[in-house]
Write a structure and sequence with these properties.
Length: 520
């Protein structure tokens, strides 16, 4: 393998990195060494939706390379990583080239080009046109905007396409690590912080624990230690699927036939070919393929990988993920026993629809050090119940008090409110503000009241959501229209509805808490 190979990620500095001394460029082995030595601050070329998939790619790659060398420590030097990665590809140097002229050889994340497809022709002229995003209205991104001058933009786009794509029309099948082609790959992980190096080293350590659980358990997938790791090495013409059996538990998959090459002007372009079948025959698995970042719903039969709708990580899903309520979590979603500091439950997902994306959603729940022992110890069930009650109370205030009050304002205080007319559009503006307000308060309130009585905690929460409801109501009055002839009547009526309903609702909650206390 020549060190003068300008497109080989094992030797060429193709990846831009930020260190404490500024921006520089690094090869893939240098990146892995830098992560182990805590020298990398960031990757300038990454877009928001690519950050978690890039972390997963590096972590899976490092874990498999270390395992084959009989090691577990991710702190290794550049020379080690170069040798270990080359061995991972069975000595096939072309497997690490972004551009490989010999179409019968693999290239980085690119299977050998099928002879049956003829010579590849340029179809994609910018890196983001290659990416996994289908539409970008919720990402504030426009397609085909990158001019392709920076090589690492193509690397990240290729990585995102091959490891996170779902079904996007005939000939474009998705990955195995999601529930159905229109599902989403949710990446959920508990971290000490989001610094690249710390997150990388912690994930590698826990990934080894996860691999052991997989390989020593029932292992219904047929995974093997030292099994196939890099699925772009073998030829694939898109007409056949292969089983999961024989793969390494941390395998890095691909889902599209694509090839990078130089266009007429010397810039990188991409060709793609349609596929009749997905590479991996895992449709019956429902996304439950032993992936340690994927939360699995076990409240339904058969279990399936969690898929979210366009609402993303609602408070209800935050609660269920944090407390593993009807959801099976992995070692990467739990702390390492020797952690002593605070941590953060993180998640990201591109929500998919039929022929579209419904937004890039993030989850960030800071967990204080003391709360960590509660959540992953003997207080988990009681804190889950308390959070569930708080979410229900916030929902009741919205439905019983805030919504009818705002609709009364919008409709001029009619004798009978309409809950499905055109004014509902305006109500949603207030609803969004109220929801965001109490979402922000929910977990700080939980940590603050975890050692207080149930009644004291819910009483404090009621005061907080009442304050949020009143603030949202005032904003609605100031910004939303109301029939001019009825404005004063509408205001008085709306305020009475708000306050009266909240008083009634709070009494009901107190009675409910009282009954629970008696039975407890």
């Amino acid at each position: 393998m020549s060190h003068d190979d300008p497109w080989n990620l094992l030797t060429a500095p193709l990846i831009r990195i930020h260190t404490d001394t500024g921006m520089t460029r690094a090869s893939l082995p240098q990146v892995l060494a830098g992560l182990g030595e805590d020298r990398i601050e960031d990757f300038p070329g990454l877009q928001r939706h690519q950050r978690d998939p890039w972390h997963l790619f590096l972590t899976q790659l490092a874990t498999m390379a270390l395992d084959r060398q009989g090691l577990r420590d991710p702190c290794q030097n550049e020379a080690f990583w170069r040798r270990a990665l080359l061995e991972l590809s069975h000595g096939e140097a072309s497997a690490w080239r972004l551009v490989e002229r010999n179409l019968e050889s693999p290239a980085f994340l690119q299977t050998p080009w099928p002879k049956s497809r003829g010579a590849p022709s340029a179809q994609l002229f910018s890196s983001d046109a290659l990416d996994a995003l289908q539409t970008a209205k919720n990402h504030e991104l426009k397609s085909a905007r990158n001019d392709g001058m920076e090589v690492d933009l193509w690397l990240y786009a290729l990585m995102s396409l091959q490891t996170t794509s779902g079904y996007s029309g005939p000939g474009n099948h998705g990955i195995a690590r999601m529930n159905s082609g229109f599902g989403s790959r949710i990446i959920l992980e508990l971290v000490r912080n989001e610094r690249w190096s710390i997150r990388f080293c912690d994930a590698v350590r826990r990934l080894f624990d996860h691999r052991q659980v997989i390989l020593q358990g029932p292992n219904r997938w047929g995974y093997q230690r030292g099994g196939k790791a890099l699925l772009w090495l073998d030829p694939w013409d898109g007409t056949n699927s292969r089983p999961l059996a024989g793969l390494d538990p941390s395998f890095i998959e691909i889902c599209r036939i694509v090839r990078l090459f130089h266009g007429e002007n010397g810039r990188l372009v991409a060709a793609k070919a349609p596929t009749k079948r997905p590479l991996l025959d895992a449709k019956a698995m429902g996304g439950v393929v032993g992936d340690p970042w994927t939360p699995v719903r076990i409240d339904q039969a058969p279990p399936k990988a969690l898929t979210l709708n366009e609402n993303g990580f609602t408070a209800e899903w935050q609660r269920r993920l944090l407390f593993a309520d009807g959801v099976e979590l992995s070692p990467l979603q739990s702390p390492i026993p020797d952690w002593s500091e605070s941590c953060l439950l993180t998640a990201s997902v591109i929500v998919r629809g039929q022929g579209r994306t419904d937004g890039l959603h993030f989850l960030r729940i800071p967990i204080p050090a003391k709360a960590r022992s509660w959540i992953f110890g003997n207080k988990r069930a009681s804190l889950n119940d308390r959070t569930k009650a708080a979410i229900q109370a916030a929902g009741e205030v919205e439905r019983s008090a805030l919504k009818p009050a705002v609709l009364a304002w919008l409709q001029g205080a009619p004798e009978q409110l309409s809950f499905d007319g055109p004014t509902v559009h305006w109500w949603k503006k207030v609803q969004g503000g109220y929801t965001r307000a109490w979402h922000v308060r929910l977990f700080p309130w939980l940590w603050k009241t975890a050692e207080r009585s149930e009644q004291e905690a819910i009483h404090l929460w009621q005061g907080m959501i009442a304050e949020d409801a009143r603030r949202s109501f005032r904003i609605g009055i100031e910004t939303l229209p109301s029939p001019s002839a009825q404005r004063w009547k509408a205001y008085v009526t709306a305020e009475c509805i708000l306050e009266g309903a909240m008083r009634n609702r709070m009494r009901l909650i107190h009675k409910s808490e009282s009954r629970e206390g008696t039975h407890g």
